[in-house]
Amino acid sequence: MIGDLDWVPAADHPDLLAEPVRTALVPQAQVAGIDPELADTAAFCERYGVPLGVSANCVIVAAKRGGEIGMAACMVLATHRADVNGVVRRHLGARKVSFAPMEEATRLSGMEYGGITPLGLPPEWPVLVDEAVAAEPYVVIGSGLRRSKLLVPGKALAALDPAEVIALGRPVA
Asked: How many domains does the chain have?
């Protein structure tokens, strides 16, 4: 499969998934245990031989509009950056968008920092999936825990309810 990991069916290993992720698995999802100290993208990809171009990050943002704050998830390849202050802000119709504070993102998602994934997020949170993520046959994403990763088809992320596929990322220089 991808990288130097032992991928196994995710549904058969709920111990490697955060609670909210267990009930939101997509078909074909595979999971692999990793060293939690290597959960951050660059260290993970280097250690396990996973190309950055198939590793996708889930960034949680806080969108402010009309005195209200709403959360949203942005999925971009590790080779890209989410255009939070441009594309994401306009798409969400927000006055201001910023990265959600770690404590708030983990508390509200029920997932660990460094392992947040779009699977199992609160249903009222929009999930914005970059076109490049949706186009990948498979991407490596978080499992909700720092000690494992999921391998899922890009089209499965695009099909999540309430996912929207948009051009939200730009390549890292």
From this structure: 1
The predicted pLDDT at position 71 comes to 97
CB burial string 18-52: b at 16+ within 10 A, e below: bebbbebbbeebbbbbbeeebbebeebbeebebeb
Whether this model's pTM surpasses 0.85 = yes
d(CA 145, CA 158) in angstroms, rounded, equals 22
CATH number at residue 45: 3.90.960.10
3 belongs to a structural domain = no
99-128 tens-digit pLDDT: 999 999 999 999 999 999 999 999 999 999
Q: Which two tokens stand for residue 157?
A: 């992320």
